[in-house]
Design a protein that fits this description.
By secondary structure, the chain is α+β, with helices and mostly antiparallel strands. The chain contains eleven helices and nine strands.
């Protein structure tokens, strides 16, 4: 984490060739150069987006005091111009150790630890400086995966009643990626914002759910946690007469 935080734009170039991840160089093999100089300008935008992701989570960890627990863990969106052409891009990010945590109509949710984040930055630098990794042309921008991105529509309806307590289901990222320690830390954070939470339980597909009572205002802070994938209101069905 310290290495990334102190990285200057000039030092980004030094990432390439120094990565300990063997697939950083392998990911570029067989790729062709972008056809014109547009990759340089576009690559600069993408590098800036990744630095924005870094800045967002660096501030979040420091302010929230979670650095020792999950510092260096990032979750962000890759907004694509054409999702139907995402296969090659997904192959690139997986080769350098990123995990695709979700797919929507226009973006992918990616998660990574610090070392893989540096490796991926190296791939983007190669695109910016040499036109390699041309699948990055599909990417419109990289932005942090923030609280409101995770809210179901039945949560957003409480915007005008920010202090109302909501019964919610908090879905975490893949249980293979999030340990018991992180699960308990999310529960502790619910309690720190005067909410209440039950014990985590797991669905048949492996998704870990935490049911909690918390206000919309506090959800807007809580759901920035990178371990949280989605938040929706608990739907309670009552028996109906036949």
């Amino acid at each position: 984490m310290e290495k990334i935080e102190k990285m200057s734009v000039k030092e980004e170039k030094e990432v390439v060739g120094k990565s300990k991840h063997p697939d950083l160089k392998a990911a570029t093999q067989g790729c062709t150069y972008a056809e014109n100089g547009e990759y340089s300008k576009h690559g600069q935008i993408l590098c800036g987006g990744l630095r924005g992701v870094l800045d967002f989570f660096s501030a979040y960890y420091i302010e929230g005091g979670a650095f020792d627990s999950v510092g260096g863990f990032f979750v962000f969106k890759a907004v694509l111009n054409d999702m139907s052409q995402s296969k090659e891009f997904i192959s690139l990010v997986e080769k350098v150790g990123l995990i695709v945590q979700g797919v929507t109509d226009n973006y992918l949710v990616l998660s990574t630890l610090g070392d893989s984040f540096v490796d991926f930055l190296g791939c983007v630098v190669l695109y910016r400086d040499k036109g390699l990794n041309v699948c990055l042309r599909l990417v419109q921008e990289f932005v942090p995966f923030i609280a409101e991105d995770k809210f179901a529509s039945n949560i957003l309806q409480y915007k005008d009643s920010p202090d109302k307590i909501i019964d919610v289901q908090i879905s975490l990222l893949s249980s293979n990626f999030i340990s018991k320690k992180e699960q308990n830390r999310v529960i502790d954070k619910v309690k720190q914002v005067d909410g209440s939470a039950g014990l985590p339980y797991q669905l048949t597909d492996g998704t870990v759910i935490i049911r909690a009572l918390v206000s919309y205002n506090n959800l807007c802070v809580l759901a920035n946690d990178p371990c949280i994938r989605r938040v929706e209101e608990t739907i309670c069905y009552s028996p109906t007469s036949q």
